[in-house]
Design a protein that fits this description.
Layout (H helix, E strand, L loop, with lengths): L4 E2 L2 E3 L5 E9 L1 H4 L9 E2 L11 H19 L9 E5 L6 H7 L6 E3 L6 H14 L5 E8 L1 H8 L15 E2 L2 E8 L6 E6 L14 H20 L8 E4 L3 H14 L8 E3 H4 L11 E2 L1 H18 L4 E9 L3 H5 L6 E9 L5
Parallel strand pairs: 3-4, 5-6, 5-7, 8-13, 11-12, 11-14
Antiparallel strand pairs: 1-2, 2-10, 3-9, 7-9, 10-15, 14-15
Helix pairs in contact: 2-3, 6-7
Length: about 350
Amino acid sequence: MKIRRQNQTVFFKNEPKIIGHYSIVGPKEGKGNLRKYFSEINKDDDLFGQKTYEKAERVMIERALDGAIKDSNLKYDDIRLVMAGDLLNQIISSSYAARSFDIPYVGVFGACSTMVEALALSACLVDGGHFDTIACATSSHFSTAERQFRFPLELGNQRPPTSQWTVTGAGSDIVSIKGSGPKILCATFGKVTDYGINDVNNMGAAMAPAAMNTLVTHFKDTNTSPKDYDLILTGDLGKLGSEILIDLMEDKGYKLGLNYKDCGQIIFKRNQDVLMGGSGCGCSATVFNSIIMKKLLSGEYKKVLFMATGALLSTTSSQQGDTVPGIAHAVVVEGVKNE
């Protein structure tokens, strides 16, 4: 009998596949390194036709879900479940967006790890035969995140060198037992990890230990090493967090090579004044559902380890003087094999 679970890693035997995907971003992201790969760029402004940034974020999720469903050549009635989450209180962007679809909905929260969390949980449900097709989505918006977690932009507070730029964007995937597309082979669920970082402007340092914990666990559970993957992609550690992760992994006996990249480092150009790079749920969601999916579908990438990281803080925890715990979840996605 094939092993279905090893420690923190679940192996899928029924080949859940990503049969549709979509990415939507704002104007700043649309001027970055991946501008030709996004499904949709709102070039005019980051309000997406709405009066507030919070309502704009809902629209992004709606468009991402709609776009992914259309990309899979399915109708709304074919989707058995929507699984989505975001960064705002009570994940209101996702919940309010779900009103538009008349589909059963499950809200999930893993901070910036939410895209992979949704993919992993959807693959579990699809592989287990509980739902045949699930739509996953997540989003973030620079202006809503700054207002909630730090300071309103109107105050003009100076950003410290360790800070990152929350990506304005949303991504969606359709996970199904039917159809064709890149296969989700397994998922490694992470543990909450806290190394005592209490600076809300240094998310890379807060999340890197969780990334190390999950990555080491994944390699042990799957009996693999970094060289077994065409790409190891972290969510949004940014420049500083990625450097910390590389050092932490070396201490554990693993050397991350040229096949390691971070979404936060590649989404923006260096001259876009984003300091340590991109962050937010929309960072990993839009990068994965643009250039990475393109290369998985073309067969250029045969095996990708996609691990999104999240800082599990809130305004309440910050006001209590708490430190910032981190979490990281990972999925292995196999590219389409071209004959």
